[in-house]
User: Which sequence fits this backbone?
């Protein structure tokens, strides 16, 4: 029986020693070495199990139980130590792993819409909310649609307002404004009421400079119906200006002349660059001209197939390039069609 | 038109308005004021001004009307004189070098003292000897031993004109000691005249609008004539050949006029209005043109008599004869077309009617007898002549926009009166007036209800009539109905429905746009239409942007040479039919583009040095002339271009790979997937701009919708581009969008796990990935959910002329987990089919 007591004491000693060694273990590698030494195949505890077969029959259950207990205790201690080391490792990692957050990110190329498309979409959305639908008409037009049907017969003085590119095809020109679309949509829709916007490219014979372009984008607004009033023109365009330029935007309508509208007006918006104090952008006036508008001229209604005695309407036209130029304080209108990536990339 | 404030004040009382307020009133009735040049007057009060002010103010304590009593020689300098001057407070000796005072030098006290503009010490004015407008302040200094601290001013120094040689000599009645600003301080308003408001290209025209807007009365100038000369009748004749072209022709005669300058105030006004004073006779015609808007023409009567061989001259207005020539007063000889209207006499052409006088019959430095023409011309005829001869003048500007014939009479009277006042002489008794074609001034019936329905206002009929009466319309109000007669000074009002709109403009303009209420649109919503194409076009833009591409908008105008660069140099299909521009700004932009590809390549060329990666697209029309069709087809196209590095170099990847064919293909696959297009196939194809072995056409449902590939090396050599190959694609947008699906079936998310399997097959080089995929799909049947090629291998292991392609296959059954046995069976079927159809071997 002394043997038994000695064997049990030996096991206890193994456990005590193992736990003592474990207490000093501070790293994963050392813990693995400890596991091999005390719980590995050839560890003293495991040796007890492998010596079972040769052991005295009577001793076996006692020794087996005791060895099991030691093994469980060591395994529990190992698990506990593993957790501790993991926690410690995490704490250490959190303390030491630090990125230089100022280094640049991995480049991801973003695609972009052309600034004119972006602004046109904004305008389309605002008018869309008011029930206006988009109508598209040709960029190359006949003299009739571009001028005559818009109340500018040949040699009409108002034709001087538009410097025109003519083509070598008789009676065909590059449209100087989106207004010919008014006639096209009217002829297509008469006698339905009309509420459309007509966006598109227009061309004018100008010398190219920072302020003047030969090609530019415009958007035309057209409402036709019975008893459309000037007051509605004013209300609609003021709402539009507030939504495009901000709730605080001041606007004014001042008399102007377009052959295809009468009365005609120019809409100015308070200069958003200087707030009205005067600056080079607004030419010291505090106002920026954003669109031309007016009540559709009876001749135009007539050409469009609407009886001017019964129908009326209003129309407006604005340059998208110009308003984009003003909004972003762009120094040169030619940037829009030169497509310099260094310019386009900023939008 | 530039209009001096003091001149406006002759016709309308503006004493209660500052310039800023006046300019606002003018702008709000349609006389848009651009810039205000101060010529003496102070800047209006207030911090915020809505107009740009330039020019010079003359403080009342510094700039004074003074009297020069004696001009004395300078002791040490011939070119300088000393003036004994009285500024109303004291006598001062002022040094000046003005040549126009030399005549008075050393003549002792002047019998008729000179009135001058005097600037005291400390005045700030323009430097008369520096170019441009440099400000300088008068300080005490010694010039050639004589003390100087103040000056007698030239026009340039005061900002009136560019003249700096002599000093201003004011009219004799200028009151000594009066602040100069009170005597002639002014401001010039630069007014932009609208094309339909040529009646307002005159001081009286503007004054009329201002008076109407302010509810004041217009004071017309007195035009009563003292006619003391002999009868005009019988001393000239008028013959009008075509009254359609010349509706009225009037003559007046003044005899014995002197050659002398106009009074200073007239010269100052002309200068401020941008016209150079010449002499009293010429100045009078220009003055009345600016004042009334009626251009007049003055002939030397003696020259006309001479041309008529001493007989009574006959003025004939007619169109030019073939080959007829005329040298105008600016010395230019014009060859005339037979439609051009002329004023002639028996000896030939005298002037281009309503445009410019001829050199010969012009008044000159010897003229004493002036025959004055006041006429009315057909504005379209004038416009045609002006545009044909590329000639312009103040007269042509006005006549080409339509001047009412009634103004001829008042114009002739005012001009004769001023000639006599400024140059002396006697006006011949009676005017000659040939008026074969007087216009009918339209009468329009206007209902107040209609006006208010149109404007959204509630203006009473009487008030509407009142507004129109301010503009000199004659109105008769009968309940709601106003009968309106157009005044005889404007041709822009029509009759009938158009006249109604013309009057609506007049009423709303003077009533004030700012007083018209703002209301939301109160109209029935029109039938809403579907515009699928335009909506999808925006979807395409969004998809391409999401795929990392930059949108472009390029010029439509280009040249055939620029477009030909997109083909190899020897390509003979390059010269296509273009829509040509008749008046291009440059040969570089003389046609409308037929392709977007060419401009897209130009953009890549322009940008490649700034950008290591370029991925761009444009959506827009191209223009194809069509036989028998007036307008060209405007075909919407989509063009894509990619070149350079796959990503920007960074510390993560300092040497990124260059973009290749499959990057472009990935973009196109992404685009087509986003449009939910079905039945897509890519086939090797040929395109003149593209590499013959690296080109695919994109077909949808068997129809070719676009082409993609690597730019042909010979085409690439046409552009200055980097080393990296360039990939481009071009789509017929309409065809592409026709195949887009708005509604598509959404597959259920699988409830059972998929089974994945890889399959590598060795095939001949000629077999395409698409061929293999098709066979795999045939074999896999309904359970084969996805086939994706993921690797390609060539080398000795697979043999010469062969390649190995690896595919990843995904099997799914909707109702159960597929067993290994089932999958094996499918795989065997696929392998068998591959062997049978493509002679493919499984790679171990
Ligand atoms: Zn501003």
Assistant:
């Amino acid at each position: 029986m002394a043997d038994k007591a000695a064997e049990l004491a030996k096991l206890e000693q193994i456990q005590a020693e193992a736990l003592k060694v474990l207490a000093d273990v501070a790293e994963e590698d050392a813990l693995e070495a400890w596991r091999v030494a005390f719980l590995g195949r050839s560890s003293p505890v495991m040796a007890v199990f492998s010596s079972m077969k040769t052991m005295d029959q009577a001793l076996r259950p006692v020794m087996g139980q005791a060895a099991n207990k030691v093994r469980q205790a060591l395994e529990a201690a190992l698990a506990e130590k593993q957790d501790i080391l993991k926690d410690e490792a995490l704490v250490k990692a959190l303390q030491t792993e630090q990125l230089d957050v100022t280094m640049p990110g991995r480049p991801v190329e973003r695609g972009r819409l052309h600034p004119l498309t972006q602004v046109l979409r904004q305008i389309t959305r605002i008018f869309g909310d008011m029930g206006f639908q988009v109508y598209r008409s040709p960029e190359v037009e006949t003299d009739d649609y571009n001028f005559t049907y818009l109340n500018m017969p040949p040699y009409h003085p108002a034709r001087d307002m538009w410097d025109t590119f003519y083509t070598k095809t008789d009676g065909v020109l590059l449209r100087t404004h989106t207004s010919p679309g008014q006639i096209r949509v009217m002829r297509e829709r008469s006698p339905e009421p009309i509420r459309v916007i007509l966006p598109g490219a227009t061309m004018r014979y100008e010398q190219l400079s920072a302020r003047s372009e030969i090609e530019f984008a415009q958007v035309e607004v057209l409402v036709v119906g019975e008893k459309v009033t000037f007051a509605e023109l004013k209300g609609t365009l003021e709402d539009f200006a507030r939504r495009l330029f901000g709730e605080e935007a001041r606007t004014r309508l001042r008399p102007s002349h377009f052959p295809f509208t009468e009365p005609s007006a120019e809409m100015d918006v308070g200069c958003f660059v200087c707030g009205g104090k005067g600056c080079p952008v607004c030419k010291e006036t505090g106002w920026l001209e954003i669109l031309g508008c007016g009540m559709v001229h009876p001749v135009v209604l007539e050409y469009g197939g609407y009886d001017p005695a019964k129908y009326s309407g209003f129309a407006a036209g604005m340059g998208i390039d110009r308003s984009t130029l003003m909004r972003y304080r762009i120094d040169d209108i030619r940037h829009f069609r030169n497509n310099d990536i260094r310019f386009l990339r900023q939008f | 038109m530039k209009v001096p404030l003091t001149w406006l004040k002759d016709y309308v009382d503006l004493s209660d308005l500052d310039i800023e307020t006046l300019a606002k009133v003018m702008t709000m009735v349609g006389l848009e004021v651009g810039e205000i040049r101060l010529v003496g007057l102070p800047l209006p009060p207030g911090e915020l001004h809505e107009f740009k002010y330039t020019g010079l103010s003359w403080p009342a304590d510094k700039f004074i009307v003074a009297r020069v009593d004696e001009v004395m020689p300078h002791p040490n300098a011939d070119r300088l004189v000393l003036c004994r001057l009285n500024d109303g407070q004291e006598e001062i000796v002022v040094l000046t070098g003005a040549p126009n005072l030399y005549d008075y030098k050393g003549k002792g006290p002047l019998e008729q003292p000179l009135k001058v503009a005097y600037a005291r010490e400390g005045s700030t004015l323009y430097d008369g000897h520096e170019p441009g407008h440099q400000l300088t302040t008068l300080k005490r200094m010694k010039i050639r031993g004589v003390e100087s601290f103040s000056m007698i001013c030239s026009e340039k120094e005061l900002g009136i004109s560019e003249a700096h040689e002599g000093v201003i000599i004011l009219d004799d009645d200028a009151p000594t000691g009066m602040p100069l600003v009170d005597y002639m301080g002014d401001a010039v308003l630069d007014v932009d005249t609208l094309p339909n408001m040529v009646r307002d290209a005159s001081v009286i025209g503007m004054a009329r609008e201002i008076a109407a807007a302010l509810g004041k009365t217009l004071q017309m100038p007195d035009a009563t004539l003292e006619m003391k000369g002999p009868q005009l009748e019988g001393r000239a004749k008028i013959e009008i050949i075509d009254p359609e072209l010349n509706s009225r022709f009037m003559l007046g005669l003044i005899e014995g006029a002197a050659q002398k300058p106009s009074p200073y105030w007239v010269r100052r006004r002309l200068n401020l209005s941008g016209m150079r004073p010449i002499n009293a006779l010429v100045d009078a015609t220009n003055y009345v043109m600016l004042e009334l808007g009626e251009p007049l023409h003055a002939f030397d009567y003696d020259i006309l008599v001479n041309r008529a061989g001493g007989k009574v001259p006959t003025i004939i207005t007619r169109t030019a004869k073939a080959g007829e020539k005329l040298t105008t007063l600016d010395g230019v000889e014009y060859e005339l077309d037979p439609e051009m209207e002329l004023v002639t006499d028996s000896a030939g052409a005298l002037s281009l009617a309503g445009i410019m006088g001829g050199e010969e019959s012009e008044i000159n430095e010897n003229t004493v007898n002036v025959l004055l023409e006041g006429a009315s011309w057909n504005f379209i005829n004038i416009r045609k002549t002006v545009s044909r001869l590329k000639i312009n003048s103040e007269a042509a500007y006005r006549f080409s926009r339509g001047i009412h014939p009634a103004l001829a009479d008042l114009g002739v009277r005012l001009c004769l009166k001023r000639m006599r006042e400024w140059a002396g002489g006697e006006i011949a008794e009676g005017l000659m007036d040939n008026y074969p074609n007087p216009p009918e001034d339209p009468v329009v019936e206007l209902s107040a209800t209609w006006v208010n329905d149109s404007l959204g206002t509630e203006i009473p009929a009487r008030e509407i009539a009142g507004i129109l009466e301010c503009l000199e319309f004659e109105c008769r109000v009968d309940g709601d109905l106003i009968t309106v007669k157009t005044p005889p000074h404007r041709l822009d009002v029509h009759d009938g429905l158009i006249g109604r709109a013309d009057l609506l403009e007049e009423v709303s303009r003077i009533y004030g746009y700012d007083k018209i209420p703002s209301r939301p649109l109160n109209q029935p919503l029109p039938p809403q239409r579907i515009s699928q194409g335009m909506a999808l076009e925006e979807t395409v833009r969004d998809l391409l942007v999401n795929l990392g591409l930059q949108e472009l908008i390029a010029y439509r105008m280009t040249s055939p040479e620029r477009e030909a660069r997109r083909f190899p140099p020897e390509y003979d299909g390059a010269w296509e039919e273009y829509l040509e521009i008749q008046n291009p700004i440059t040969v570089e932009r003389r046609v409308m583009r037929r392709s977007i590809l060419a401009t897209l390549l130009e953009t890549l060329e322009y940008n490649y040095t700034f950008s290591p990666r370029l991925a761009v697209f444009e959506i827009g029309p191209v223009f194809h002339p069509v036989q028998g069709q007036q307008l060209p087809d405007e075909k919407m196209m989509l063009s894509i271009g990619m070149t350079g590095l796959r990503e920007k170099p960074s510390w993560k990847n300092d040497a990124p790979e260059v973009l290749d064919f499959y990057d472009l293909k990935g973009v196109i696959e992404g685009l087509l997937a986003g449009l939910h297009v079905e039945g897509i196939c890519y086939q090797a194809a040929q395109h003149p701009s593209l590499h013959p072995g690296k080109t695919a056409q994109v077909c949808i449902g068997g129809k070719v919708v676009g082409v993609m590939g690597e730019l042909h090396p010979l085409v690439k050599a046409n552009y200055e581009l980097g080393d990296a190959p360039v990939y481009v694609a071009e789509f017929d947008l309409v065809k592409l969008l026709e195949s887009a699906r708005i509604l598509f079936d959404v597959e259920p998310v699988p409830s059972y796990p998929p089974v994945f399997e890889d399959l590598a097959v060795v095939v001949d080089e000629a077999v395409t990935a698409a061929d293999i995929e098709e066979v795999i799909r045939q074999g896999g049947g309904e359970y084969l959910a996805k086939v994706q090629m993921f690797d390609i291998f060539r080398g000795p292991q697979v043999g010469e002329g062969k390649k190995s392609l690896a595919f990843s296959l995904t099997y799914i059954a909707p109702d159960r987990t597929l067993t290994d046995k089932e999958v094996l069976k499918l795989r065997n079927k696929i392998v068998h089919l591959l062997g049978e159809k493509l002679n493919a071997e499984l790679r171990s």
Notes: Strands of chain A lie at 133-134, 140-142, 172-174, 194-203, 215-225, 251-258, 261-270, 287-296, 312-319. Chain A has two domains: 2-96, 115-344. Residues 115-344 of chain A form a domain with the BirA Bifunctional Protein; domain 2 fold (CATH 3.30.930.10). The longest strand of chain A covers residues 215-225.
